[in-house]
Amino acid sequence: MIKKNVFALLLLLTFTKACFAGADIFISCKDIKDIKIVQILREPPFVDSKVKQYIYSVDFSLRAESGKRFLAIKESAKPDRINVNGTMYEIVRASLHTGSGIVSSDFTEGSILSDKNISIAKGSKKAAFETADNVCSKIKPKTLFIYDVLDALGVDMKHGIECSGKLVPYKEYDRRLHRCAQRLAAGRNCDDLKMNCKPSRITKDYQIRITP
């Protein structure tokens, strides 16, 4: 469900003051199980809270042996100390060495690296697809551009007004998200599905308000 995916994206955005990434990672198709490209809203302190900027995270799911090897590289890497609005962050910059060249993150935050996956953050969809293709053109990436869907529905999760209409089952909201995503993929709009407010909190019995 999209709800679970959104929750995963929120976890992905949670950087600590000791934010680890990679170093020099030599990677190819044999290291990778699958690829996902997910759209994330960039958050403070790395961008002003008033700025709406998207990150396109290219997530490479790793095979077990490759994950162990890359984790060892991460643990031996020395982080850079970077001052962001007066706070010092320790960040290691990951560089993926592929048969087509070297790819790395477009953002200060660097990349996320564990024994399960590597994530490289790019500033555009085009760059994200190019990164996936450079690392392994044999695997077609799965995509989740949730904020494109929310924008098409007139939902501003940061500054919009909260919906105050009647409560409906959460699955109705989930269906609306999926329908809009399918239309956008087909080059169509979601004008008749627009909400023009941000959904309310989900109640204990999984109901939600999705109309003004």
Largest sheet report: 5 strands, mixed
How large is the radius of gyration? 19 Å
Helix count, DSSP H or I runs of 4 or more residues: 5
Shape: globular
Could you tell me the strand content as a percent range? 25-35%
Roughly what percent helix? 25-40%
Structural class: alpha/beta
Average pLDDT score: 85
Span of the ends, CA to CA: 24 Å
The strand order across the widest sheet is: 9-10-4-3-11
**Poorly predicted segments:** 1-21
Number of strands: 13
Q: From N to C, what is the helix and strand string?
A: HEEEEHEEEEEEHEHEHE
Report on the structure:
With 212 residues, the protein is of the alpha/beta class. It has 5 helices and 13 strands. The strands form 4 sheets. A 5-stranded mixed beta sheet has the order 9-10-4-3-11, sandwiched between helices. A 3-stranded mixed beta sheet has the order 1-6-5, with no helix packed on it.
Question: How would you describe this structure in keywords?
Answer:
alpha/beta; three-stranded mixed β-sheet; 212 residues; five-stranded mixed β-sheet
Helices and strands in order:
Layout: H1 2-12, E1 18-19, E2 24-26, E3 32-41, E4 54-62, H2 64-76, E5 80-84, E6 87-91, E7 95-98, E8 101-104, E9 112-113, E10 117-122, H3 125-135, E11 142-144, H4 146-152, E12 167-169, H5 170-185, E13 207-209
Parallel strand pairs: 1-6, 2-7, 3-11
Antiparallel strand pairs: 3-4, 4-10, 5-6, 7-8, 9-10, 12-13
Helix pairs in contact: 4-5
